[in-house]
Amino acid sequence: MNVFKKIAKFLTTTPDRTPVYWLNVQCDHCGEIIKTRINLYNDLSIHYGKKAQSDTYFCRKVIVGTQRCYRPIEVEMTFNHERKLMERQINGGKFVEEG
């Protein structure tokens, strides 16, 4: 019986546990709300500081909707050394809360 449990455990998929930051934006032109994610390990670029705790991460993402106008929305974000959001800016849209 243990052999079958081991095989079943090996064959079943585990959920993706990659740390992500979810982002909801609304296009200024057409009003479409777009939900996208930022992988906190692969989408960030590091900016080295003088100490390890002064390192920051930067992410620039261009988001394009699929329903109406296809205009690009540019988002720039800065994260601290623990990959927590410090500041964000948007051009071509606005940030909206999930709803």
Brief synopsis:
The protein has one helix at 2-11, and strands at residues 20-27, 33-39, 45-47, 56-64, 72-79, 85-91, 93-95. With 99 residues, it is mostly beta strands. A four-stranded antiparallel sheet has the order 3-4-5-6, with no helix packed on it. Strands 2-1-7 form a three-stranded antiparallel sheet, with no helix packed on it.
The assigned structural class equals mainly beta
Described by the principal axes of the CA atoms, the overall outline is flat
Order the strands across the largest sheet as they lie in space.
3-4-5-6
Q: If you compute it from the alpha carbons, what radius of gyration comes out, rounded to the nearest whole angstrom?
A: 19 Å
Extended strand count:
7
Please write the string of helix (H) and strand (E) elements: HEEEEEEE
**Approximate helicity band:** 10-25%
The largest β sheet comes out as: 4 strands, antiparallel
Classify the beta-strand content into a percent band: over 45%
User: Average pLDDT across residues?
Assistant: 87
Give the termini separation: 46 Å
Low-confidence stretches: none
What is the total number of structural domains? 1
Number of helices: 1
Task: Describe this structure as you would to a colleague.
The longest helix has 10 residues, at 2-11. The chain is 10% helix and 45% strand. With 99 residues, the protein is mostly beta strands. The protein starts with a helix and ends with a strand. The protein has one domain (17-95).
Task: Supply the key terms.
single chain; 99 residues; mainly beta; four-stranded antiparallel beta sheet; three-stranded antiparallel beta sheet; 7 strands; 10% helix
